[in-house]
Amino acid sequence: ASLPGPVWVEPLDAVDKKIVCLQPVTPFMDVSSTYMQEDCLVANVFVPDTEEKNLPVLVIIHGGGFEIGYGDMISPKNFVRTKKIIVVNFNYRLGVHGFLCLGSKAAPGNAGLKDQVALLRWVKRNIANFGGNADDITVSGGSAGSMSTHLLTLSKSAEGLFTKVIPESGADISTAAFQLDPLDNAKTYARMLNFTDVDDFKALEEFYKSSSLKSIIVSAFANRQNATLLFAPCMENGIDSQFIFNDYPVNIIKKGKYKKVPTLIGVGSMEGTCQLHNFDLWKDVMNEKFSDFLPGDLEFPSEEEKEEVSKRVKEFYFGDQPVGDNKILSYIDYFGDIIINFPTWRSVKLHVEAGHDQIYLYEYSFVDDSTPVVPHTDVRGAGHCAQTAALLDGIPFVSADESKLSEEYKQMKLTIRDIWYNFAVYRSPIPQGSSLPAWSAAGADGSPYMSLGKTIQLGDGTYLGKRAQLWNDIYEKYYKAPVPPPKQERTEL
Description:
alpha/beta, hydrolase, globular, two-stranded parallel sheet, Carboxylic ester hydrolase, Rossmann fold, 13 helices, serine esterase, 493 residues
């Protein structure tokens, strides 16, 4: 867990120093104008220009695959300017520093989630000083921030710290949201750093403890073909009394013993764009051995059965044609479904079956001429976390000039801000007296759901339709639950 914050005798000049947590340099995130350091747990509080008190509060958890990113990478200034709401964003430890899960006292796991909980406790204690209502806190986030947001609803450690959640493109039971085998992941990562004595636990732990902080940072995104991440939240083994999870999400939901807070959850219509950068690298490999691309939280009794399921899935998405440039939209559907869409559908199903009756489901599909065209096509789609970009400003560290946007996109941003704000204040997405259609809570089949596009209308049928049924049949039969790191013999620290 993070240490208590410092105490100042004199007033602190709390200017934004652009501090970010230690992370690898990747093509996905420009951190060249930031200061990367270990002491990185800073929060930013955005307050509207009003004398009013008891304002609703939105805490935003940033995304970045639990490996990259920072609190203010997408500014909320325009949202705060147009709505009477306080927004808090913040940093949390990432990658090996935030999510190494050895199950030892030195690295019990979930340090990054413990930072998130510490921030929520800070907000609860202090937000009244900024004009906020400590009893009216909503948590939201995109991608890994969405998974974090949704996961926190299942943890006793975060209970009572918020009253509503808005997960944007990522669910609590996403394959990427939770380590399947943390010790195995720690060994894999150590090998990437050229450490070979991975089967000696004491040596492995000592390697991580004795290495300099920056020397053990390398990007772990590469070749994650099975929708898993090396570093993510984990199931802890009980060595730390301040654990976040001592069970795995599917089981927690099925038991039903968690605080069921109102939830506004949804996805973009083309979530699989998050894997577009791998298309040229993966398309031939997918034709050679498609089974390597099945989600990592599936386990088969035999290799033959795995190949049979793999053949069925490949034919479902790609027909009898090979994965190639003319099938790039099917590629986007496939990865969108296994990483984001189906886990969202399945999560809604499990929560509703556990008695949760306040889940509002949507698909965001707005595009305009500024939306990039998918390579090899003339098609545009709402990509991964497009709804987060609509809510917020979209440019790191600066407030975006929204006057240059198309009139349609300006209107979409207003609508999204209305819906998010109304949900944060009234626990319902549609404002009273609005011309928007009535929006009821979702049932276990993924309906109703709202389509948020150039028009706002109820979606056709059930969300994800036959695609959800395909994966549900597979997961009912082959789902593999995550495990905690094994308990080790007592070692001297």
